Every structure is written in C-alpha cells, then in structure tokens.
Amino acid sequence: MCAFTWLLLLLLLQEGDQRRLWRWLVAVLHESISLPLEISPKEEVENIIWSSHKSLATVVPGKEGHPATIMVTNPHYQGRVSFLDPSYSLHISNLSWEDSGLYQAQVNLRTSQTSIMQQYNLRVYRRLSEPQITVNFEISGEGACNMSLVCSVEKAGMDVTYSWLSSGNSAYTCYEGPVLSTSWRPGDSALSYTCRASNPISNVSSRPILAGSFCADPNYASEKPSTAFCLLAKGLFVLLLLVILATVLWVIRVQKRRKMPRMKKLMRNRMKLRKKAKPASSPA
C-alpha cells in the first residue's frame, strides 16, 4: 500500500509540471548530506523556498556580489543546515531519523511565471554492526541433527536484507533470508556458515561458524561458558582453602609461641619445689 502511494505521487508529479525533477537519496545516521539543486546560470532567481512537510527555509540570492539572505523557518533544522554556493543546494548535518522524508526546492524566477520544482526522497539509515548468529538444533532418533540458524543485527532499522553463505569441499552456496534451516549427520563434511546483512549504505558479515560442531557435541554451545565458569570456581575454591590453611597454621604457631614461656616457667617452679623438698626429707 505504501509503495503504491509513492508511485502514484511520483506519477502525479511527473504529469503536473514538465520542469519537475525527482531524486532518491540515502544518508547515514548522524552524518551529513547535500541535496543538490540544479539551476542554469542563465536563470535569474528571485528566491528559493526549501520545504519538508512544511516550510524549511527561504533563500534570497544577493545582488552584485552581496551575500544571500537566508531565513530558516523550521526550528528542527536550526543550526544544522547550510546552503552551498552557487546553486544554494541544501546541506544537512547531524542527520536524525526524523530527517527522512520528502523535500522540495521551489525556485522562483524573475523572468518567468513558471517555477522550477525539484523533489527529493531522503532515507536515513544506520551503519550495520556485525551480525549475530543463534543456533537451535535437535537430534532426531535416526541420528540426524536438524539445525536452525537465526541471523540478527542489533538496532538494524529498516530495509535490512539477510543472506547466508555456506562453504565446504571448495563449494559455495548462497541462501536468502534471516533464518537458515539445514541438517547434518555423522560422517558428513563440516560446513561453515556465514551470515551477511545489508542495507542501502552498509554490508557486513558475521564470523563463520561450524554448524556440525553443535551436533557432534550437543553440549558444544553451552560447554564453553560453563567450563570456564567451573574452572574459575575451582580455582577460587582452591585459593580459599589455601588461605584458610595458612591462617590456621599461623594461629597454631602463634599460640605455641605464647605457651612456651609459660611452660618453661612452670618447669622451673617444679624444679625449685623438688630441690626444696629433698633437704626436708633427709633427716628422717
């Protein structure tokens, strides 16, 4: 329905005025773009009215070397637009999602009652990040491993297409769509799969994965993080035991040191008592 509306609008614009021009432009989010305005040097321009949904700016060319008078009437573009000499093409910086849409330049001439109309359809896109692959698999009773590979891109936005490239035995096969369904049996060659995501301004690929590894070892997907976690937990546990053992030994050693002077004093007292007891018993 949306595509039909755009097509109808384009046909109406082409039929209504032979001096209309139409351009399709794409730009990158947070970057800049220029909407080129083509005016013949022979034309005497009275003013140029730029608009997008509503009036954007009015440019009145200067006379005899004087600078042009520029009035930006839409606060959304304040501080982000400039007009490039000599044609006063519209330059927009720090693009946002809201900048997508239809733009129009109406060039009013001094020598003619007919205005030159130039239309633009601007689409703003984000540069895609590296695709991520999620693997879902199920091993059937016959030993076959049925896999579903799902490709996704964070904050992908609109007009993103996905394709798959599988490689193995020097052969390459392409598939379309974000989801790839395949199967693997023991003894089959190990195929690697790469997902490619594209939009009008970028084209990125994921890291290749060996899907057969998930089927040959069903715990492959979960063993890596769990093994690392177990090793870390075991290491911390052993370290804790060593600390506790060292603390216990240190406490025992300190207590022994404290008891040694008492024991020596007690032994000396006993020796003195024995010496005193011997003379007292000799007359008998």
UniProtKB/TrEMBL annotation:
Q: Where's it mainly located?
A: membrane
**Pfam families in alphabetical order:** V-set
Report the GO terms under cellular component: external side of plasma membrane
- Signal peptide range: 1-18
Keyword set, alphabetical order: Glycoprotein, Membrane, Signal, Transmembrane, Transmembrane helix
Q: Which SMART domains match?
A: IG (SM00409)
Q: Where, subcellularly, is it found?
A: Membrane
| GO biological process terms, semicolon-separated | T cell activation
- List, for all copies, the residue spans of the domain called Ig-like: 131-211
SUPFAM superfamilies reported for this sequence: Immunoglobulin (SSF48726)
Q: Which Gene3D superfamilies match?
A: Immunoglobulins
Residue intervals passing through the bilayer: 231-252
Name of the protein in its database record: Ig-like domain-containing protein
Protein source organism: Colobus angolensis palliatus (Peters' Angolan colobus)
Phylogenetic classification of the source organism:
Eukaryota, Metazoa, Chordata, Craniata, Vertebrata
